[in-house]
Amino acid sequence: MSSAETVETVTEAGERAKAGTDSPGLRAYLPTRQTARALCSGSAVLIGKGWAWITAEGAKEAGSRLLYSGIGLYTGAYLAHTNPQIVMPVAVVGWIGGALMFAPSPPHPARAGPALT
């Protein structure tokens, strides 16, 4: 197939798409590599900030913060188990929002290092 040729995928109701292809309408909702990279790096920042908060002061304070965090996680897991239709979307959207807010900014193309060839 030459680069000038295009392939149009049309599926009718009930017809399955070929393996390895995705719906053209779905591509707009899939995350880009930049979004996935920002989500992963922001999640690492959130975990680091949480651990820094737990261990910020002495051992006694860290122990109590760790205990309270464990109780909160247990309560959250129980609520997620009993009411997943409410708790899971809230938790996922909250985590994604926080991770994207704390994600480091990508470097500008002009400031990027020399390209490796």
Radius of gyration equals: 22 Å
Secondary-structure content class: mainly alpha
Largest pleated sheet = none
Number of helical regions: 3
Mean pLDDT: 80
Helix/strand order: HHH
The overall strand count is 0
User: Low-confidence runs (pLDDT<50, min 5 residues)?
Assistant: none
Shape: flat
Give the strand content.
Answer: under 5%
The percent range for helix content is 55-70%
Distance between the ends: 28 Å
What would you note in describing this structure?
The chain has 117 residues and is an all-alpha fold. The chain has 3 helices and no strands. It has helices spanning 33-54, 59-82, 84-102. Helix 1 packs across helix 3 (84-102) and helix 2 crosses helix 3. The chain is flat.
How is the topology of this model organized?
Blueprint: H1 33-54, H2 59-82, H3 84-102
Summary tags:
single chain; 117 residues; 56% helix; flat; 3 helices; mainly alpha
Short précis:
The chain is mostly helical. The protein has helices at 33-54, 59-82, 84-102.
